[in-house]
UniProtKB/TrEMBL annotation:
<dbReference type="GO" id="GO:0004656">
    <property type="term" value="F:procollagen-proline 4-dioxygenase activity"/>
</dbReference>
<dbReference type="GO" id="GO:0005506">
    <property type="term" value="F:iron ion binding"/>
</dbReference>
<protein>
    <recommendedName>
        <fullName>Fe2OG dioxygenase domain-containing protein</fullName>
    </recommendedName>
</protein>
<dbReference type="GO" id="GO:0005783">
    <property type="term" value="C:endoplasmic reticulum"/>
</dbReference>
<keyword id="KW-0223">Dioxygenase</keyword>
<dbReference type="InterPro" id="IPR005123">
    <property type="entry name" value="Oxoglu/Fe-dep_dioxygenase_dom"/>
</dbReference>
<dbReference type="GO" id="GO:0031418">
    <property type="term" value="F:L-ascorbic acid binding"/>
</dbReference>
<dbReference type="InterPro" id="IPR044862">
    <property type="entry name" value="Pro_4_hyd_alph_FE2OG_OXY"/>
</dbReference>
<dbReference type="InterPro" id="IPR006620">
    <property type="entry name" value="Pro_4_hyd_alph"/>
</dbReference>
<keyword id="KW-0479">Metal-binding</keyword>
<dbReference type="Pfam" id="PF13640">
    <property type="entry name" value="2OG-FeII_Oxy_3"/>
</dbReference>
<dbReference type="InterPro" id="IPR045054">
    <property type="entry name" value="P4HA-like"/>
</dbReference>
<keyword id="KW-0560">Oxidoreductase</keyword>
<feature type="domain" description="Fe2OG dioxygenase">
    <location>
        <begin position="136"/>
        <end position="255"/>
    </location>
</feature>
<keyword id="KW-0408">Iron</keyword>
């Protein structure tokens, strides 16, 4: 079976006049930066930040996002795209992307400003991990809601050329997907885990088939996973109960 793609996004452009920028809630309360750290869940592929958003902030955002004009994704995808059944909202908002990057602990954690537990990398190792010099987040912000019975079939995430907020905007390229989970079993969401499938061993190899790597939902967890040419096949499992809410952007490096 041919690999499925998420669906190619166009390079970010200034917001269209017809689409009103949401009045996003403030990022408060947040856990102090010194109490957070990057956790390498799968070396070179998956990095997490537990408690990136507090439970209170997640609840505030779910309440706010519920009022946005979400659109149900068609059940029949374009040729070559994976089956995705969810409700989504998408907007180009450079200001929100910059606030999510610089107005939280994300920038300092990713660029290594924060000392302490987590990834202790040299500048060279950090560039190698992220795929270059990280300059911010993709201004294309996506909101996903998965209700009971909805899912995202196995697929790969593409890399995209974008312009990151700056004066003037900086040409960038996305290298890692950012998923921020706002709900979990603690909020009544059952199912919806993100599952990664390591490449199988070569045909003549006697190595066993590697087990899938499952990332369960945790309220406020930020998940970063490598995409583009080195993206692992992955899926969002079916939600069995409640709602799964996700904020999606991408880590960008200078191009």
């Amino acid at each position: 079976m041919a690999p499925k793609k998420e669906g190619k996004l166009k390079a970010s452009a200034p917001p269209r006049a017809a689409q009103q920028i949401p009045n996003w809630p403030a990022f408060t309360p947040l856990i102090p930066e010194s109490d957070l750290s990057l956790q390498e869940a799968l070396p070179g592929q998956i990095v997490t930040i537990p408690n990136f958003f507090t439970a209170t902030l997640c609840k505030n955002y779910v309440s706010f996002l519920s009022g946005l004009p979400l659109t149900t994704t068609p059940g029949k995808p374009k040729k070559g795209d994976a089956v995705r059944v969810n409700d989504r909202y998408q907007i180009d908002d450079p200001a929100f992307a910059e606030r999510l990057w610089s107005g939280t602990s994300l920038k300092n954690l990713v660029t290594g400003v924060v000392a302490g537990e987590g990834l202790n990398l040299s500048d060279h190792q950090r560039k190698e991990l992220w795929g270059g010099e990280v300059i911010g987040l993709n201004p294309n912000i996506r909101i996903y809601r998965y209700s009971k019975g909805q899912f995202f079939d196995q697929h790969y995430d593409d890399s995209n050329n974008v312009f990151v907020p700056g004066s003037p905007p900086i040409p960038g390229r996305t290298t890692w997907t950012l998923l921020l989970y706002l709900t979990s079993p603690a909020t009544g969401c059952v199912g919806g885990e993100t599952v990664f499938y390591p490449d199988p061993p070569k045909k003549k190899s006697r190595e066993p088939q590697p087990e899938p790597f499952v990332v369960g939902l945790e309220t406020g967890l930020a998940l970063l996973h490598k995409h583009g040419a080195d993206c692992m096949l992955h899926e969002g499992r079916e939600v069995l109960q409640g709602e799964k809410w996700v904020i999606r952007s991408d880590l960008c490096v200078k191009r």
